[in-house]
Design a protein that fits this description.
By secondary structure, this protein is mostly helical. It contains 16 helices and 4 strands. It has helices at 4-7, 16-22, 24-39, 46-71, 79-97, 101-125, 130-149, 158-165, 173-191, 193-203, 205-210, 215-241, 252-262, 274-293, 301-330, 338-341; strands spanning 154-155, 167-168, 171-172, 243-244. The protein has a two-stranded antiparallel sheet. The protein has a two-stranded antiparallel ribbon with strand order 2-3. It is globular and about 60 Å long. Mean pLDDT is 84; it is low at 1-11 and 340-354.
Length: 354
């Protein structure tokens, strides 16, 4: 057989528009890079691209955890406060208990897991909607951190800065940590039953419950994972600047959510993946770096960044609508045919009366 059907087993011809819609997040990122490169050719230098990836790493790490939450149609507004409180507890342990960098990193991640478990308890056990729960814990976690420090700045030891500035085979440590988190998330979501159950729950929560999936544990897992990633992201950023104040991480939840959605995750659940965080974080950081690099007015930068995010999310919504429409066209209801009605299997027979 020749023609389109020969190379397409489902009988559909190649559709460039559908392909572009499916990879719209990547195309948007490439268009943004091309636009800034045209405006300022030096923007494509290796140093600029390397710094962009490095600066995107901490938002990307937190966005990986946010993708898990969004896959279940949830939301976590507390990630900015977790980014603040987790490293703060690690810094206090380093100051008062002489804990090393490795121990501080572990404390930070465990603290993030504990804060994620608090969110999970309210969402799963008490059935409070995620938006209200995490909005409350946003203030709770930050207020507790301000109480511990009396709103004073906390300086970290030089060893923490050494961790953030270290390189392995020429790759900055923040980028390596980001890559490890993305790889782990990819394996969980794609190659484990847990990942498939998360997608099933996000696509149809009620159906997942009726199928006997452990929906409570799935929801608890995603919020704990989000807390761990957010706290780790905060520690990675602290390792680059060396100090922490009360405003640290404030408002970062919006960048994290935007990164996850820009990369292709859906606010309605069931859509997204580990690489959504990569694409989204790179998109946001590329826009921020490009606006600075091209000398755009400082007061216009937030406006332009918001405009780019709006356009990207709008295009992603159109992409999702197109994909949903294509799925509806593929699905056909079963219609009984006369042949099937007259087949031996469709007829019942009676034993003859004695």
């Amino acid at each position: 057989m020749t023609g389109p059907l020969a190379s397409n087993p489902v009988g559909r011809s190649f559709d460039p528009a559908a392909l572009a819609a499916r990879y719209s997040a990547v195309l948007i990122l490439l268009l943004i890079i091309a636009g800034f490169a045209i405006a300022e050719p030096a923007f494509l230098s290796a140093d600029t691209m390397g710094n962009t990836v490095k600066q995107a790493s901490f938002i990307g790490i937190a966005a990986v955890g946010m993708v898990f939450v969004l896959l279940t149609a949830g939301i976590d507004l507390s990630v900015g406060s977790i980014m603040y409180l987790g490293p703060l507890l690690a810094g206090i342990a380093m100051r008062d208990m002489e804990v090393g960098v490795t121990g501080a990193l572990l404390i930070s991640v465990l603290a993030g897991a504990a804060m994620g478990a608090i969110n999970a308890f309210f969402v799963v056990a008490l059935r409070i909607i995620p938006f209200i729960t995490t909005l409350a814990t946003l203030f709770l976690f930050r207020g507790f951190g301000a109480y511990l420090t009396s709103s004073r700045q906390l300086d970290f030891p030089d060893e923490v800065r050494g961790f953030g500035l270290a390189t392995v085979f020429g790759l900055p440590m923040p980028v390596i940590v980001f890559a490890i988190i993305v790889a782990a998330a990819y394996v969980i979501l794609v190659h484990t039953p847990l990942g498939r159950q998360i997608y099933a729950f996000g696509n149809d929560a009620e159906g997942a419950r009726k199928a006997g999936l452990p929906t409570a544990r799935l929801q608890a897992f995603v919020y704990i994972a989000s807390g761990m990633c957010a706290s780790l992201a905060g520690f990675v950023l602290i390792s680059q600047i060396g100090r922490l104040d009360t405003g640290f991480g404030e408002g970062r939840e919006f960048s994290v959510i935007a990164a996850a959605v820009l990369g292709g995750a859906s606010l309605f659940g069931g859509v997204g993946g580990a690489f959504s965080a990569v694409i989204g974080a790179l998109t946001i950081q590329t826009v921020q770096a490009g606006l600075v690099y091209t000398g755009i007015n400082l007061y216009l930068q937030p406006l332009l960044l918001g405009l780019v995010i709006f356009i990207a999310v709008l295009l992603d919504g159109l992409r999702q609508a197109r994909l949903d429409d294509s799925r509806r066209r593929i699905i056909r209801p079963f219609v009984s045919t006369p042949a099937s009605m007259s087949s031996p299997k469709s007829r019942t027979t009676k034993e003859p009366s004695p």
